[in-house]
Amino acid sequence: MLRLAALLALTLPTAAFAQAAPAAAPAAAQVKVETLSAGVGGRPPEHSFVLINYKGMLTDGTVFDQADRVPMALDEVVPGFAQGIVQMERGGRYRLTIPPELGYGAEASGPIPANSTLIFEVDLIDFKTAAELQAMMAQMRAQAANPPAEPQQAK
User: Fold this and answer.
1) Please, which residues have CB within 8 angstroms of residue 124's CB and are 6 or more apart in sequence?
2) Do the domain assignments include residue 147?
3) Contact between 81 and 98 (Cβ < 8 Å)
4) Which of 56, 103, 131, 136 could bridge to 65 as Cys pair (CB 3.0-4.6 Å)?
5) How many domains does the chain divide into?
6) Percent of residues in the chain assigned helix, strand, coil, to nearest 5
């Protein structure tokens, strides 16, 4: 009897013995990053601070926000924006398409309706890690506490 089961297992299609496969999970939402002008200065790491120019739009072209030379902490923006920024290179210009799941989702936010796909045009001017910013701030505090001596003028 065991031999018959083994023989049937070898000769019958395996689907006859397999359970139905679970339905595939929907693909995770992803940010689309289009290069408008390539950068050359490296990519910002996660959790960094960036200096950018940006214009935020809805898919119909309505501009909901824009600014130049704005510093931003990547930990303080919608997930899709941060995910897109870390794929950019310093000095480049990019277009991000952020699906609702990685933007504001089912919540409206100011002029942005619920479940909106967001489009951003972004110039990545510069970036720094938290450690680099802390070192710069410490250096500035030290310089402020110990200003250079004023040169004495001859009389």
Assistant:
1) 39, 44, 50, 52, 85, 88, 89, 90, 91, 92, 93, 94
2) no
3) yes
4) 56
5) 1
6) 25, 30, 45
CA–CA dist 135, 155 (Å, integer): 41
Cα distance between residue 121 and residue 111, in whole Å: 18
Q: What count of Cα atoms within 13 Å lies in the side-chain half-sphere of residue 88?
A: 32
- Per-residue tokens: 28: 């995770």
Q: How confident is the model at residue 4 (pLDDT cuts 50, 70, 90)?
A: very low
Contact (CB, 8 A) for 52 and 81: no
- The domain of 57 spans 27-134
For the entire predicted model, the pTM comes to 0.73
What digits encode the pLDDT tens for the residues 42-72? 999 999 999 999 999 999 999 999 999 999 9
Name the residue among 79, 67, 90 with its Cα closest to residue 31. 79
CATH of the domain at 60: 3.10.50.40
